[in-house]
Amino acid sequence: MPHPAPSPELDRPSATPYHRVLLKLSGEAFGSAATGGGIEPAELYQIAAEIKDAFVTGVQLAVVVGGGNFVRGAKFAKAAHIHQAVADQMGMLATVMNGLALKEALLHIGVDSRVMTAIDVRAVAEPFVRGRALRHMEKRRVVILVAGTGNPFCTTDTCAALRATELECDLLMKATKVDGIYSADPKKDPTAVRFDALTFQQAISKGLGVMDMTALAMCQENNVPVLVFDFKASGNIRKAIEGESLGTLVSPP
Q: Residue 194, SS3?
């Protein structure tokens, strides 16, 4: 069945505070609510609908997807007694599956999109080339970035920080299951306090687990603010892109 043509409403200049944004989605976002594993069609299309709702504002958008709904490299390496480099490569392939699923869902609802990969799988996705990714975004396509950085021992958080820097994004949005960064795990500690804003140095010194340290340091060095927010709340991606105050913003002082 052919996909519908891109929606005309998507072809307009940005009316938001941000020109170009990178959204980081975990692999678990695609999985079933019960197990977090595999790809649940209802979750997939909910994500696609939320992305479209944000994309109609005119913002240029790149999306980095994780692969934890299929395999987590470091954890799997220990459990299966295989080298972490191999387990991480398996995780990269998992992100390709998630990226392809998201692309198809977006195309199905009229959002033009492309999958760009850091590893060579030319039969299913085009290689990541910075200039080409920028051109796709200029042509009003959502760019879905898969396979992390292409290197083992690097998380998809690091990939998100790297690509946000390369693509000169105004904001890195990290989608989570909680509504921001807390002083402790709010599910375990009822006294945990949510922060509205933090500097990079505060986030690093407090060890709040916002992102891995490599990713956070890269964002700090390149002045890429990071918004940690609850993507499960309907409309939150668009609200954040439109500049509404939600989640926790980590930025330079």
A: strand
At 72 the three-state DSSP class reads coil
Q: What is the CA radius of gyration of the chain?
A: 17
Closest residue by Cα to residue 176 from 49, 21, 66: 66
What pLDDT shows up at residue 13? 57
Q: Spell out the CATH class of 8-251.
A: alpha beta
How many Å apart are CA 42 and CA 191, to the nearest integer?
34
List pLDDT tens digits, range 95-136: 999 999 999 999 999 999 999 999 999 999 999 999 999 999
* Token pair listed for 137: 């975004």
Average pLDDT over all residues of the chain: 92
Counting every residue written for the chain, the total comes to 253
Contacts of residue 67, Cβ cutoff 8 Å, sequence gap at least 6: 27, 91, 92, 93, 94, 95, 97, 98, 156
Domain locations in the chain as residue ranges: 8-251
Q: Percentage of the chain surpassing pLDDT 70?
A: 94
179 vs 88: CA distance, rounded Å:
29
